[in-house]
Specification:
Rossmann fold, about 30% strand, 2 domains, 5-stranded antiparallel sheet, alpha/beta, 8-stranded mixed sheet, globular
């Protein structure tokens, strides 16, 4: 039997200047769409102010830290700030399983490798000197710190964040682009090896593949070309998603003579969509609790578990769900909260009804995700 839970928290804190709030039938308060949009802006402004305090050490020391894990940072700014803020390019150096001095040298090289205009360019130094130095478990919070610090201190637009990397840095992009796809406006992989990574999460994240045609070490050239075909097939089956471009540079080995710098201009026009109408989420070896506006139960996370869903008007159709329950965080970009919302799975309606907009949920979602792109005034948890 299908059961459901609808979770709508009582408002604990009202925004200044929101005006009168309508009472719902259960005695809690409900925001109008205009009030929720106003409160979202207020919350974002406060989050940026709070982030300047929380990220002060990262900005001043130029080191992202999580416990004992440290990732040194170098950055510069190119061009002038556009309306809405600078773009941010996070650029991952090569090296990998090598002595620290070699990875240090690769870090120095990465600082000069690209020069995106009207952007903040950040070149981190990997926390480890292992082959998986850019995607080892524990590094994701450091990427999130970099983004948060750059938004708070360097006037970066959080919806214009790009990740790119060369060689071992490309290995990292293969993994982090899908794993954290909801963080990136686009991604570009240069001369890395994909391993066994799945690319299905890139449905809403434009992705580039660059490799030298003669880069045969570890079969990189063949593996990259094959993954380009995979992306072709994904887009063929879903023409509105999986924007990508594959370039195998004929005659080039592991070094592509900087032709890959074209990736910067290719990525630049894209903006992150934090409320996609169709989401594909497959867990990788490093598990994440939330992806875009979907949250899975923490105690049920496991590699290769998958959720697929699509919004059709005010209907949310869950096409696949490998979890016993799933939480859907909602705002008016995803569905019209002034109208009934319907959730369907396996041909059955699990929920149909009106949801109120809650200031408390907006606070909770921002506190959980630490990303102003994921502020949600409503949520539904369905148990399948």
């Amino acid at each position: 039997m299908n059961r459901l839970i609808v979770t709508i928290s009582v408002i604990a804190l009202l925004c200044t200047g929101c005006g009168g709030l309508k009472a719902s039938t259960d005695g809690s308060k409900s925001l109008s769409r205009a009030e929720a949009e106003k409160y979202s802006k207020d919350l974002t402004a406060k989050w940026i102010a709070d982030s300047r305090v929380a990220m002060a050490d990262v900005y001043n020391s130029k080191v992202a830290k999580d416990g004992e894990l440290e990732m040194p940072l170098w950055w510069t700014t190119y061009g002038t700030k556009p309306e809405g803020g600078y773009s941010l390019y996070i650029s991952l150096h090569g090296g990998g399983g090598a002595p620290p001095r070699l990875n240090d040298q690769q870090w120095e090289n990465q600082k000069r490798l690209y020069a995106p205009q009207n952007a903040v360019y950040v070149a981190p130094r990997a926390p480890w000197n292992t082959w998986d130095l850019w995607f080892h478990e524990g590094i994701d919070p450091l990427y999130e710190q970099v983004i948060r610090m750059c938004v708070a201190y360097l006037d970066v637009n959080p919806d214009k964040v790009y990740i790119m990397g060369y060689s071992a840095g490309g290995d990292g992009v293969w993994r982090e682009a899908p794993r954290m796809a909801d963080h990136w406006a686009a991604a570009s992989m240069m001369a890395g090896h994909p391993g066994d990574v799945s690319l299905v999460n890139l449905r809403n994240t434009p992705f580039m593949i660059w490799c030298g045609g003669n880069d045969s070490a570890y079969n990189r050239n063949k593996e990259c070309a094959d993954r380009g075909v995979v992306m072709d097939e994904l887009q063929k089956g879903d023409p509105e998603g999986y924007i990508h471009k594959t370039t195998i540079v004929e005659g080039a080995g592991h070094w592509m003579n900087r032709v890959d710098t074209a990736a910067v201009a290719w990525m630049a026009p894209y903006t992150r969509n934090t409320a996609p109408k169709k989401v594909v989420w497959r867990q990788a070896d490093v598990l994440r609790k939330a992806f875009y506006w979907i949250e899975a139960p923490r105690d049920q996370l496991a590699r290769d578990k998958e959720v697929r869903l699509e919004v059709k008007g005010n209907r949310i159709v869950i096409e696949k769900c490998d979890y016993p329950s799933v939480t859907l965080w909602l705002n008016d970009r995803i569905v019209n909260l002034d109208k009934p919302v319907q959730v369907e799975y396996a041909g059955k309606t699990l929920f149909k009804g009106r949801l109120q907009r809650s200031a408390a949920l907006m606070q909770e979602s921002l506190a959980q995700r630490n990303d102003p792109g994921f502020i949600f005034p409503a949520r539904i948890t369905v148990i399948l």
